[in-house]
Specification:
Number of domains: 2
Structural class: mainly alpha
Strand content: under 5%
Helix content: 55-70%
Protein name: Interferon-inducible GTPase 1
Radius of gyration: 19 Å
InterPro entries: Immunity-related_GTPase-like, IRG
Number of helices: 5
Organism: Cricetulus griseus
GO molecular function, one term: GTP binding
Length: 119
């Protein structure tokens, strides 16, 4: 019989105790696609979470670049325009994932009682 893992975590300070071990365990035990989605859904609460998001998105960008490179070898009209629009959508999504979109920055500025420019 397998012994279940037990993690001690703190609500007030996530860097205390086993929070990082819990996150590592959750991510390690998930299949690849679920791991990617879970990694992106984690809040930017620790530096390790931001680093994981960065690595996950970097892998995704390489796959997308490879796909775009292959598609670029095929002659087609309007691909460049579509690619630029897709890039804009993806860049906006990355801003949201990392919490640096306009709405997130405004909320953070409001919480810290500073202007968005000071952030």
């Amino acid at each position: 019989m397998d012994v279940p893992q037990i993690f001690l975590i703190s609500n007030s300070d996530l860097s205390d105790y086993d929070f990082q071990v819990l996150m590592d365990s959750l991510i390690r035990d998930l299949p690849a696609q679920k791991r990617h989605n879970f990694t992106l859904s984690i809040s930017n609460i620790t530096e390790a979470a931001v680093d994981r998001k960065h690595e996950s998105i970097q892998q995704y960008i390489w796959l997308e670049a490879f796909k775009s490179g292959l598609l670029a070898t095929l002659p087609a009209v309007g691909i460049l325009r579509d690619d630029v629009e897709k890039l804009k959508v993806k860049l906006k999504r990355y801003q949201v994932i990392f919490g640096v979109d306009d709405e997130s920055l405004e909320l953070i500025a409001k919480d810290f009682k500073v202007s968005v420019e000071q952030l």
